[in-house]
Amino acid sequence: MTTVTDPPTGAEHALQRGRQRLVVSEAGGGARSWTVDDSELLASFASGTRDGAFAGKPLMPWPNRLRDGRYEFEGREYRVKVTEPETATALHGLTLSSRWRASRTS
Q1: What is the rounded CA–CA span in Å between residue 52 and residue 36?
Q2: Do residues 25 and 60 make contact, with C-beta atoms less than 8 angstroms apart?
Q3: What is the pTM of this model?
Q4: pLDDT (tens digit, 9 = 90+) per residue, 47-86?
Q5: DSSP sequence for the chain
């Protein structure tokens, strides 16, 4: 029996236009690499590895930290999982661990 595990980034999709190439990762939906004429413009990380930061990731619906994992929207209070226990905060939104998928290719 063979066990197959996805890389931490999940599938990666390359978008190309002229001399530019953008690589987007399935895990977190982030931009892993953006090159123009093969020159890297982002603080990129190797394919198949997890990045140590949140650069290039869509941080939705909030881009920073929520104290005690609480926020209010349209008069209603919401609670989310505290993901950074040392600061008692929920860190950088709800989409970081989401697996995104390509809805159309070609």
Answers
A1: 24
A2: no
A3: 0.69
A4: 777 776 777 788 888 888 999 999 999 999 999 999 899 9
A5: -------TT-SEEEEEETTEEEEEESBTT-EEEEEETTEE-S----TTS--SS-TT----S-SSEEETTEEEETTEEEE---SBGGGTEEES-S-TTPBP--S---
